[in-house]
C-alpha cells in the first residue's frame, strides 16, 4: 500500500553505510560490554572464545569502525552528493526557531510544530526536510561520540603509547574511564534510536527509509489524493501496542542497569572511589544488563530484517520491470 510516508530520503551509499556502521557498532557494544561486565555477560564471553577472543573481536570491530569513518569522510569531501548532504546537515536559523517553537508547543504556547521539526507521519514527502533539527543533532552527537571513542580506543589499544605520552598510570586509566563513559552515553542514544525508528506506529517494525534508497522508491503513487499523505489508509499493527510497551520498558531497564552496573564494576567508567561494592543487587543487575543486551540484539535483528525487506523490494521491482518490458514488446509485435 503506497503512501507519501514511505518515500525514500537517502542515497544507496548512505543506506549501505548505515547498515555497515550499525553492524560494526553492535559488535563493538557486544564485545565491549562483555569486557566491562564479564560476570554478568559470562555467556557472551564464552561465545567469543574467552577474554582473548573478546579482545580480538573488539579490536577487529574497532579497526572496521576506523575504516568506515575514513571512507565516509572521503566520500563527504570528494563527491558532489557528499558535499550536498553535508550542507543539508548544517544547522540553520530555521532549526533554532524550530527548537524554540517546540518548547512553546510542549508548554502549550504554540498551535503546531515548526516545519524544521517534522520527522514522521502527518505531512507530505515534500513538506518534510531531509533531516529535522533533531535528526541533525543525532548525526552530530553520533559523529562526535564515534570520533572520541575511536581516538581513545586507539590510545588504549597502544597502552605503551599512552604511558609514554602522559608518563602516569593514572592518565592511562583515565582514558579507559573516558572510553567507557562515552560507551554508556552512546548506548543510551543507540537504544532510544532503535526504539524511536522501529516502534513508531506508522513504520513498525522498521522504517524502510533507512534501508531502501530513494532511487528505488517512487516519489509519487497512482491516484494520490493531493490533499492527504495517505496515512488514513494505514492500519495499526495488532502487535504494536504490547511490543512498544515491552521494548520501551526493556530500553529503560537496560540503560539504568548499565549505568548502575558501571558503579559496581570497579569504577569503569565511574571512578573506583565511588564504587559501592557488590551485594544482593547483583542478580537484579545481571538481569537488567542482559535485558539491555537483548535490546541491542533486537536492534541488530531489525537491521537485518530491514535489509531483507530491501532485497525483497528489489526483486519485486525487477519482476515488475521485466513484466512491463514483456508487455511492451508484445504490444509492439501485435501492431
From TrEMBL:
<dbReference type="GO" id="GO:0009055">
    <property type="term" value="F:electron transfer activity"/>
</dbReference>
<feature type="transmembrane region" description="Helical">
    <location>
        <begin position="138"/>
        <end position="158"/>
    </location>
</feature>
<feature type="domain" description="Cytochrome b561 bacterial/Ni-hydrogenase">
    <location>
        <begin position="10"/>
        <end position="211"/>
    </location>
</feature>
<feature type="transmembrane region" description="Helical">
    <location>
        <begin position="284"/>
        <end position="305"/>
    </location>
</feature>
<keyword id="KW-0472">Membrane</keyword>
<keyword id="KW-1003">Cell membrane</keyword>
<dbReference type="GO" id="GO:0022904">
    <property type="term" value="P:respiratory electron transport chain"/>
</dbReference>
<feature type="transmembrane region" description="Helical">
    <location>
        <begin position="242"/>
        <end position="264"/>
    </location>
</feature>
<feature type="transmembrane region" description="Helical">
    <location>
        <begin position="170"/>
        <end position="195"/>
    </location>
</feature>
<dbReference type="Pfam" id="PF01292">
    <property type="entry name" value="Ni_hydr_CYTB"/>
</dbReference>
<keyword id="KW-0812">Transmembrane</keyword>
<feature type="transmembrane region" description="Helical">
    <location>
        <begin position="56"/>
        <end position="77"/>
    </location>
</feature>
<keyword id="KW-1133">Transmembrane helix</keyword>
<protein>
    <submittedName>
        <fullName>Cytochrome b subunit of formate dehydrogenase</fullName>
    </submittedName>
</protein>
<dbReference type="GO" id="GO:0005886">
    <property type="term" value="C:plasma membrane"/>
</dbReference>
<dbReference type="InterPro" id="IPR011577">
    <property type="entry name" value="Cyt_b561_bac/Ni-Hgenase"/>
</dbReference>
<feature type="transmembrane region" description="Helical">
    <location>
        <begin position="17"/>
        <end position="36"/>
    </location>
</feature>
<dbReference type="InterPro" id="IPR016174">
    <property type="entry name" value="Di-haem_cyt_TM"/>
</dbReference>
Amino acid at each position: 500500500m503506497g503512501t507519501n510516508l514511505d518515500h525514500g530520503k537517502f542515497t544507496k551509499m548512505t543506506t549501505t553505510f548505515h547498515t555497515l556502521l550499525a553492524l560494526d557498532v553492535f559488535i563493538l557494544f557486544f564485545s565491549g560490554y562483555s569486557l566491562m561486565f564479564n560476570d554478568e555477560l559470562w555467556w557472551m564471553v564464552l561465545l567469543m572464545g574467552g577474554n582473548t577472543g573478546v579482545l580480538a573481536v573488539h579490536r577487529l570491530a574497532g579497526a572496521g569502525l576506523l575504516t568506515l569513518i575514513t571512507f565516509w569522510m572521503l566520500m563527504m569531501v570528494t563527491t558532489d552528493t557528499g558535499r550536498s548532504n553535508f550542507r543539508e546537515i548544517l544547522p540553520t536559523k530555521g532549526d533554532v526557531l524550530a527548537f524554540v517553537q517546540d518548547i512553546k508547543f510542549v508548554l502549550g504556547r504554540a498551535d503546531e510544530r515548526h516545519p524544521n521539526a517534522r520527522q514522521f507521519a502527518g505531512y507530505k514527502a515534500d513538506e518534510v526536510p531531509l533531516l529535522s533539527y533533531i535528526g541533525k543533532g543525532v548525526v552530530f552527537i553520533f559523529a562526535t561520540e564515534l570520533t572520541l571513542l575511536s581516538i581513545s580506543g586507539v590510545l588504549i589499544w597502544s597502552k605503551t603509547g599512552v604511558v609514554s605520552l602522559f608518563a602516569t598510570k593514572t592518565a592511562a586509566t583515565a582514558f579507559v574511564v573516558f572510553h567507557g563513559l562515552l560507551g554508556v552515553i552512546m548506548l543510551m542514544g543507540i537504544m532510544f534510536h532503535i526504539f524511536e525508528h522501529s516502534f513508531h506506529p506508522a513504520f513498525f517494525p522498521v522504517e524502510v527509509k533507512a534501508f531502501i534508497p530513494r532511487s528505488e522508491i517512487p516519489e509519487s503513487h497512482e491516484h494520490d489524493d493531493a490533499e492527504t499523505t495517505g496515512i488514513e489508509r494505514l492500519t495499526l499493527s495488532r502487535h504494536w501496542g504490547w511490543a512498544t510497551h515491552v521494548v520501551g520498558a526493556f530500553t529503560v531497564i537496560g540503560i539504568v542497569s548499565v549505568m548502575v552496573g558501571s558503579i559496581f564494576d570497579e569504577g569503569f567508567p565511574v571512578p573506583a572511589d565511588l564504587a559501592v561494592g557488590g551485594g544482593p543487587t547483583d542478580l537484579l543487575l545481571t538481569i537488567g544488563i542482559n535485558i539491555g543486551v537483548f535490546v541491542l540484539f533486537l536492534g541488530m535483528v531489525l537491521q537485518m530484517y530491514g535489509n531483507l525487506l530491501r532485497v525483497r523490494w528489489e526483486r519485486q521491482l525487477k519482476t515488475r520491470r521485466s513484466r512491463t518490458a514483456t508487455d511492451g514488446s508484445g504490444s509492439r509485435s501485435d501492431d
